[in-house]
Amino acid sequence: MKLPVYFISHGGGPWPYIPAMQASNAALAASLRDIPAQLGRKPKAILMVSAHWETDGVFSITANSRPPMIYDYYGFPEHTYQIQYPAHGSPELAGRVQELLSAADLPVVADTQRGYDHGAFVPASVMYPQADVPMIQLSIDAGYDPALHLALGRALSPLRDEDVLIIGSGLSYHNLRQIYGGGAGASAQFDAWLQHVLLGSPTRQRAAMLQDWERAPAARLAHPREDHLVPLMVAVGAAEHDTASCVYHENQAFAGITASSFRFDATA
């Protein structure tokens, strides 16, 4: 059976590993823990498209059987720079991704050195704390072209029939400079637009509306750089004709912002 696709808001930094942050992220944690139950079975592997890996002009795929850790956050307690998430990589799946992207005329290379960044290992550690599901990462393009990333998702779509769980990992709001100022209002406005596009519009119109995302209310206040929005484009491309449902939503998430996560499923 074809697996669903997810776009998740992954929260701030290494929050599951910091007791003071766990309470403010309790709803997010519950939503991530529920994903394995929603699937009903353990996938063969996870393909994580993280906002925290950008490449320029060519997509990169991790092809390391034992990916190292990348602590790409700053100012957190010392123990968060010792975290280990020992899920295996999958060079075999990396090769399959290369095959699919090459067939779609999308440039792709294998990276045998890169490890897991926190956009990947943080949500994965909540979903699968035993680290017993292999995981690979795929980069986003630094040009942030929505059409390109929708095409990327379309190219990856066959993996859903191969028991691979595709997850776009970002945030529905990502403006760190404004998060404690105007973040509440901007995030609520932009989130309402996302809900309308993903849940309230015909699926045949969804891709076109997302390509025009900069015209959404508070668009550039919510995403001055769209690195954390682009993984949504990949998820939508991989599930272009599927029904969307909101699997996480908070009006007062960490720092008081509105945040959401979405699932795309032919049977939703």
TrEMBL record:
The source's superkingdom equals Bacteria
Cofactor list: Zn(2+)
* InterPro entries the UniProt entry points to: Extradiol_dOase_DODA, Xdiol_dOase_suB
Question: What does the UniProt keyword field contain?
Answer: Dioxygenase, Metal-binding, Oxidoreductase, Zinc
Q: Where is the Extradiol ring-cleavage dioxygenase class III enzyme subunit B domain?
A: 36-264
A molecular function GO annotation: zinc ion binding
For this chain, the family text in UniProt reads:
Belongs to the DODA-type extradiol aromatic ring-opening dioxygenase family.
Q: What is this protein called?
A: Dioxygenase
Organism, as annotated: Pollutimonas subterranea
